[in-house]
Amino acid sequence: MRRDGMLRQIRERARGGEPWDIAVIGGGATGAGVAVDAATRGFDVVLVEAHDFGKGTSSRSTKLVHGGVRYLEQGNVPLVMSALKERGLLRLNAPHLVHDLAFVVPNYSWWEAPFYGIGLKLYDLLAGKYGFGPSRVLTKEETLERLPALEPEELRGGVIYYDGQFDDSRLLIHLMMTAADHGATLVNYCPATRLLRDAEGYVNGLIARDDETGEELPIAARVLVNATGVFTDEVRRMADPKTEPLMVTSQGIHLVFDGSFLKGNSALMVPRTRDGRVLFVIPWHGHAVAGTTDTPVDAPSLEPKALDEEIEFILETAGRYLSRPPSRADVLAVYVGLRPLVKSGNGEGKTAAISRDHVIHVDNSGLLTITGGKWTTYRHMAEDCVDHAITLGRLRDAECETKSLRIHGYRECPDSTNCREEPLEVYGSDEAQIRALAADSALASRLHPELPYIGAEVVWAAREEMARSIEDVLARRTRALFLNARAATEMAEPVARLMARELGRDEAWIETQVKQFGELARQYTV
Ligand SMILES: Cc1cc2nc3c(=O)[nH]c(=O)nc-3n(C[C@H](O)[C@H](O)[C@H](O)COP(=O)(O)OP(=O)(O)OC[C@H]3O[C@@H](n4cnc5c(N)ncnc54)[C@H](O)[C@@H]3O)c2cc1C
Known about the structure:
The protein is α+β, with helices and mostly antiparallel strands. Helices cover 35% and strands 23% of the residues. The strands form three sheets. Strands 3, 4, 5, 6, 11, 12, 13, 14, 15 and 16 form a ten-stranded mixed beta sheet that branches. Strands 1, 2, 7, 8, 9, 10, 17, 18 and 19 form a nine-stranded mixed beta sheet that branches.
């Protein structure tokens, strides 16, 4: 993916006067899914993202590809079944990124083993042929073997079940590359600033601004898809300033610790915290990630901040289950994501609720909004959205291709539990090219002793994955910022120097970038 080439395509299309079939606003999981779906059906697609791909919620998830055990408790069987099917399809289509993960629910009361044992059997049953492995009740010894860091006092046993785990922003970049492989045009740092309307008041295009140069880019399109997550209403207001809001927002935080707090390859699942939520502590890239919370938020922002009480809540809850309770000093990073939640029964125009999970909404202006849902179901959401776009824009009929579409980087993993330990495994079939770059010994060594990332990844990200800043590389092309904010800060300057060479930037750029990244990284510490 080359950003200047993408911009050239947008300019040429504007000069030619032919509209795009579909213009997508928003480069998170939802927008990327729509771009992949539409491009593989043969439509002309352009996607604009205001910041970097995945800057919003889609890089800040719990990293689970799951059916949602929680929804089962709420009795929402169709939703769980549909998510379990998507979980299975995603593992088939991106085996380099989606791995099985064993979850252990520890039991400290007599009723927990039969209660969770039966519930999780139902979870297995609903997965059908997309199952990841049978759940079963564990003895106390087996539970501690799986989770050696668990608090043993009063432990009676546990229940084990299986779900999927992934690297969210890596999958996002590979989805963008899949869309590009199929002819889509995608640009980051290019916000939609205005929507255009025809004589009858229907939206028929947008103006995007290249934030690197300030250039305004007119984009005419038959259908405009609003996939902006928690920013959905801001874009809807561009079409109609008086429109009723559709969204409410809540935030969830995660704390990241050294892997020794969890030990082993299994995740801990606490089915009911004192505020009635589920808490996970999962092994991820050699670390332990604990989350999450659910705190209402007034207004969306790209860098939401963790509240002290959220940090304390996770420390306290995780500490009750771990034999070595973590403290604030043990937190290597904190990251915060905002949930795009749809208000029920609100908004003007026609709301076609496809399921209780995601919502497709057509405003009176013809703006097609897709929102809600979760990462796991992005493919199904995109299929629904493009089906609607075909009707709305009177596009030619074309079947969805994504159920068996291999995602960029596709490579089978011979052992689904072990190969995730390899640092370059997430690149899948691109790994060979990164290794080729690392033949230059200056790019082969680690950028920081506490993290596995090497210089070749920085060069690759700038050259092939449209990374434009240190943050793009350290937060989303690699996961340094999310794993260890201090180490990421210490990596900033060498990363800036490698990027400057690739992108033709000067000393002043390096200095500004290092300063800006340092300020950002401070928000990821507690
Ligand atoms: C704490 C937390 C944990 C989660 N864990 C999981 C999990 O484990 N598994 C799972 O399946 N799901 C999970 N989810 C849900 C999942 O992460 C989200 O549903 C999903 O990422 C939403 O993607 P999105 O593309 O709709 O939104 P976003 O990722 O926020 O993308 C929207 C994009 O639109 C861009 N944008 C905004 N305005 C404009 C504009 N004017 N022009 C251009 N672009 C614009 C933004 O910059 C942003 O990048 C979790 C969510 C949260 C909050």
